[in-house]
Amino acid sequence: MSISIKTNSINEEVLPVTQKELKDLINGEYSKTQDINKTIDSTLKFLSIKSSKFKYIINVTELQSAGAADTKVGSSFGSLWDEKNDGLISVSLTIDADINKILMFTVIFINI
Protein backbone atom coordinates (compact mmCIF):
# COMPACT_ATOMS: atom_id res chain seq x y z
CA MET A 1 0.00 0.00 0.00
CA SER A 2 1.40 3.40 -0.94
CA ILE A 3 0.21 6.87 -0.15
CA SER A 4 0.90 10.23 -1.72
CA ILE A 5 -0.35 13.78 -1.55
CA LYS A 6 -1.99 14.73 -4.82
CA THR A 7 -2.71 18.39 -4.17
CA ASN A 8 -1.33 20.98 -1.83
CA SER A 9 -3.42 22.52 0.87
CA ILE A 10 -4.51 26.10 0.78
CA ASN A 11 -2.75 28.12 3.50
CA GLU A 12 -1.36 25.07 5.31
CA GLU A 13 0.12 27.31 7.99
CA VAL A 14 -3.36 28.02 9.43
CA LEU A 15 -4.59 24.41 9.30
CA PRO A 16 -4.49 22.26 12.45
CA VAL A 17 -2.40 19.50 10.82
CA THR A 18 0.35 19.28 8.23
CA GLN A 19 0.06 17.30 5.03
CA LYS A 20 2.48 14.72 6.45
CA GLU A 21 0.48 14.34 9.68
CA LEU A 22 -2.72 13.81 7.72
CA LYS A 23 -1.07 11.40 5.29
CA ASP A 24 0.37 9.33 8.15
CA LEU A 25 -2.93 9.36 10.04
CA ILE A 26 -5.02 8.19 7.09
CA ASN A 27 -2.47 5.55 6.10
CA GLY A 28 -2.27 4.22 9.66
CA GLU A 29 -6.01 4.20 10.28
CA TYR A 30 -6.87 2.52 6.97
CA SER A 31 -4.08 -0.04 7.45
CA LYS A 32 -5.61 -1.01 10.84
CA THR A 33 -9.22 -1.38 9.75
CA GLN A 34 -9.35 -1.66 5.94
CA ASP A 35 -12.67 0.19 6.33
CA ILE A 36 -13.33 3.58 4.74
CA ASN A 37 -16.04 4.67 7.20
CA LYS A 38 -13.97 3.75 10.25
CA THR A 39 -11.02 5.64 8.76
CA ILE A 40 -13.21 8.70 8.22
CA ASP A 41 -14.59 8.50 11.78
CA SER A 42 -11.19 8.12 13.43
CA THR A 43 -9.71 10.91 11.30
CA LEU A 44 -12.58 13.24 12.24
CA LYS A 45 -12.15 12.38 15.92
CA PHE A 46 -8.42 13.11 15.73
CA LEU A 47 -9.02 16.42 13.96
CA SER A 48 -11.69 17.53 16.44
CA ILE A 49 -9.29 16.86 19.31
CA LYS A 50 -6.48 18.66 17.47
CA SER A 51 -8.53 21.86 17.04
CA SER A 52 -12.10 22.92 17.76
CA LYS A 53 -11.60 26.06 15.66
CA PHE A 54 -12.58 24.23 12.46
CA LYS A 55 -15.46 22.27 11.02
CA TYR A 56 -14.23 19.27 9.05
CA ILE A 57 -15.57 17.57 5.95
CA ILE A 58 -14.02 14.38 4.57
CA ASN A 59 -14.89 13.01 1.15
CA VAL A 60 -13.50 9.69 -0.10
CA THR A 61 -13.61 8.65 -3.74
CA GLU A 62 -12.86 4.99 -4.46
CA LEU A 63 -11.37 4.10 -7.84
CA GLN A 64 -11.08 0.51 -9.00
CA SER A 65 -10.43 -0.73 -12.51
CA ALA A 66 -9.61 -4.44 -12.57
CA GLY A 67 -8.34 -4.96 -16.09
CA ALA A 68 -9.96 -1.87 -17.57
CA ALA A 69 -7.00 0.07 -18.92
CA ASP A 70 -9.10 3.07 -19.96
CA THR A 71 -10.86 3.80 -16.68
CA LYS A 72 -10.84 7.51 -15.88
CA VAL A 73 -12.37 9.37 -13.00
CA GLY A 74 -12.27 13.10 -12.57
CA SER A 75 -13.12 15.18 -9.57
CA SER A 76 -13.30 18.92 -9.14
CA PHE A 77 -13.79 21.08 -6.09
CA GLY A 78 -15.03 24.62 -5.90
CA SER A 79 -15.25 26.79 -2.84
CA LEU A 80 -16.29 30.21 -1.73
CA TRP A 81 -14.54 30.64 1.58
CA ASP A 82 -12.01 32.64 3.52
CA GLU A 83 -8.78 31.83 1.70
CA LYS A 84 -6.73 33.11 4.65
CA ASN A 85 -8.26 30.74 7.22
CA ASP A 86 -9.85 27.77 5.42
CA GLY A 87 -8.22 25.06 3.35
CA LEU A 88 -8.07 21.51 2.12
CA ILE A 89 -5.66 18.63 1.79
CA SER A 90 -6.13 15.77 -0.68
CA VAL A 91 -4.40 12.44 -0.12
CA SER A 92 -4.30 9.47 -2.50
CA LEU A 93 -3.93 5.98 -1.00
CA THR A 94 -3.10 3.14 -3.42
CA ILE A 95 -4.62 0.01 -1.88
CA ASP A 96 -3.86 -2.62 -4.50
CA ALA A 97 -1.77 -1.81 -7.55
CA ASP A 98 -2.73 -5.11 -9.24
CA ILE A 99 -6.39 -4.14 -9.49
CA ASN A 100 -5.76 -0.39 -9.60
CA LYS A 101 -7.67 0.29 -6.37
CA ILE A 102 -7.12 3.81 -5.11
CA LEU A 103 -8.81 5.80 -2.35
CA MET A 104 -8.72 9.57 -2.67
CA PHE A 105 -9.34 11.39 0.64
CA THR A 106 -10.15 15.08 0.57
CA VAL A 107 -10.22 16.79 3.96
CA ILE A 108 -11.79 20.25 4.04
CA PHE A 109 -11.07 22.62 6.93
CA ILE A 110 -13.53 25.46 7.58
CA ASN A 111 -12.53 27.92 10.29
CA ILE A 112 -15.40 28.79 12.63
UniProtKB/TrEMBL annotation:
Chief localization: other
Protein's UniProt keywords contain Transport: no
Top-level taxon of origin: Eukaryota
Keyword field: Cell projection
GO CC aspect terms: cell projection
UniProt xrefs under InterPro entries: Tctex-1-like (IPR005334), Tctex-1-like_sf (IPR038586)
Subcellular location per the Swiss-Prot or TrEMBL entry: Cell projection
This protein's record includes keyword Iron-sulfur: no
Family: Belongs to the TDA2 family.
Protein name listed in UniProt: Topoisomerase I damage affected protein 2
Protein's organism: Pichia inconspicua
